[in-house]
Amino acid sequence: MQKEDLLKWLESSPSIQELKKFAKSMGLRVRKAMKKRDVIRIIRERLEECEHVSSTSVPFTTLSSSTHVELPKTYNRDKLVLMPVNPHLAFVYWDLSENVRNTLLQKAKEGKAILRLYDVSFVMFNGKNAHRTFEHRLDENTLNAKNFYFHVPSSRAVYLSEMGYLEGEEFVPVLRSNAAKVPSDSPSLSSRERWVDLRSRRRWVSVSRGSLVKPVEKLSVLSSFQEIVSGSGIGKSTLDRR
Amino acid sequence: MRGKILLVLHAHLPYVHHPEYGSFLEERWLFEAITETYIPLLMIFEEMKNFRLTMSFTPPLLEMLKTKDLQEKYRRHMEKLIELSKKEVEVTRNEDSRKHKMARYYLEHFQRVLGVFESFGGDIVEGFKKYQREGRLEIITCNATHAFLPLYQMYPRIVDTQLSVAVRNYEKHFGKKPRGIWLAECGYFEGLEAFLSKHGLEYFFVDSHAFWFADEQPRYGVYRPVMTPSGVFAFARDPESSEQIWSSTVGYPGDPRYREFYRDVGFDREYDYIRDYIDPSGVRVNTGIKYHKITSKSLDLSQKDYYDIDEAMEAVEEHARDFLRKKEKQVERLIEVMGVEPVIVAPFDAELFGHWWFEGVFFLKRFMELTFESKVLKLATPSEVLDTLDEVQVVMPASSSWGAGGYYDVWLSGKNDWIYFHVHEMGEKILELAEKYKDSCDPLTERVLNQMLRELLLAQSSDWAFIMTTGTSVEYATNRVKTHIKRFLDLHEQLIKGRINEKVLEYYEWVDAIFPELNFRILVGDGQP
Known about the structure:
The complex is a heterodimer. By secondary structure, chain A is of the alpha+beta class. Among the domains of chain A are: 3-68; 79-181, Immunoglobulin-like (Sandwich). Chain A is built from six helices and nine strands. The two termini of chain A are 44 Å apart. The model of chain A is unreliable at 50-66 and 223-242 (pLDDT under 50). Chain B is an alpha/beta fold. Among the domains of chain B are: 3-66 and 123-245 and 335-387, Glycoside hydrolase 38, N terminal domain (7-stranded beta/alpha barrel); 412-524, Families 57/38 glycoside transferase, middle domain (immunoglobulin/albumin-binding domain-like). In chain B, strands 1, 2, 3, 4, 5, 6, 7, 8 and 9 form a nine-stranded mixed beta sheet that branches. In chain B, β4, α7 (192-198) and β5 form a beta-alpha-beta unit. In chain B, α3 (68-91) packs antiparallel against α4 (97-119), α15 (418-437) runs antiparallel to α16 and α15 packs parallel to α18 (474-497). Chain B starts with a strand and ends in an 18-residue tail after the last helix. At the A-B interface, α3, β1, β2, β7 and β8 of A face α1, α8, α9, α12 and β10 of B.
């Protein structure tokens, strides 16, 4: 309902019950002793306030009406964030200030905008010393989509992403992400075991012969992901997911 | 030599409280969990001579259980349910005798549940504390709003805040520090243990593959706790126990004699009859009165036969004995291979028992009773295990979760990845402001920042991302995230423009009232573990 409609409605002599109900839905505190004119007053006051707060905040936004809430498309910050998803997948998203966005958009139009992923396991990355470098050319749509999923070749490796453009043959980085380690998906090859005696605090290292208890692992089957979609109940379907 | 088994129940619901509404559909999640899981647990605790159980109560759940308004709403909810049960007793006189028998059972059961609720003055947390004092129930915490921490690891201060809020909230409710923590969704990343150590937490839980794929292979697999490099202990889930209970094909809850979850009078009765007992909007919901049994999993819902609780209790007895037998066999097998005492960790969502698997609470009771007589297996709490530990292997567990796929996919996919763009930004914004205003004495500024932190924490709940992936109540989850982002950004703008609208602030404080004790300055530690 628009504010004008609400004001009209207030003048259409609604019942005290309706008024109280509506006031409550606006988050106003309604006391039992309140008369009709009191309730109308507090509703009007709240409506007046709405003009003083920013356009993004309508105090009586209820959950049911916030479906169409528009969130900011950008926070005007230059930022590239890399997140691990699983041993073979990483997610990167970005936000760009206006200037940088314009530069990169121009480069994307020229086919020169680039998103890079580096394997930087065990190195202090200086821009040139990655074990492996992967590149993806960004078109305008991808740039505007503001995120990207990378299939990564090695589990338990540390990755880092850069966004930039080509100048001649040279890659010019504009943004650099955090480093992110993707999880491991296989037993360690280390032949070491470290132990500690909690009483004496003695520590020692011994040779590992692997785990004495050999686990039976679950095969990941693509269709099993469907399983968790069934069910309902306490807000979440838990029965099939463990 | 006996093996030990740790039963761990993770009790959690996202913070859902809408004081601005007389009743709200999603508040029923809490009511159902109280009626079907939490109070039935208290009932079996009372009946058992002795037991050992570990439970994590998440801060949002504790906050809701302690909220007077929700307690009052629960009371009204139960009064309506009991009224419906009385009608059901009458109506079923002319229906199948098995229905009538269950109607009488429900009436008596719900009256008892409400009685337990009232015996603690509506605050059932007090009920659990009693068993905590006696050392039978070990209560641990969970990170503040159940944020999935691996997806915040690039923001150490945010991870740190989730832990610091959790520890303080536990102290508020239990008057002491928690020894252990359940990480939301077993969400773990290498390095997290250092944060736990900083907050004085002694142990946490991970899924099996966190040990299998650790930096060095644990000699005893998942059957002994390990010590992480920062001195915090980790327990890993036993895959066999989970499979025996969770599996949708071979798990106990699928027995034909057990109650069918998806047949409920809320959907089965004539609309006019049930109108007063479903959601006021007219949307049909589960009431908790169910007359059918699973019968056969291949049968259509409409063809299910009637449920008989005595028949179901026979299944409970069989399953509890079967589970014990399997655990004893497992222990014998493990002792042979390991040569030391195995520790079996069996964690579950608490709400599985009672809510999803109606008879699950009785199963737990019988299993614990039977185990007390076992010569092979012994119930224990994590503290009991750690306090008697001498030699322990030092291992860094592998990053993992207990969600589908075993990693982070459930909480980061095309269905929910948009969340992090905003929620990370909120983190950056509030950290900047916290730094700027940490020495401010202006009470209004402080209130705005405290409320911004509440909105951030609420938006971080893993539940919203989870729901978006699983596809139930997606609209509500999406709205919740958006609403918290909006309120946060609104307050942010008010603060930086120096135009704080106290009425709006007061409203947000009222509708998002979690953690009244919160102070934004906890954000301004060094953030390092």
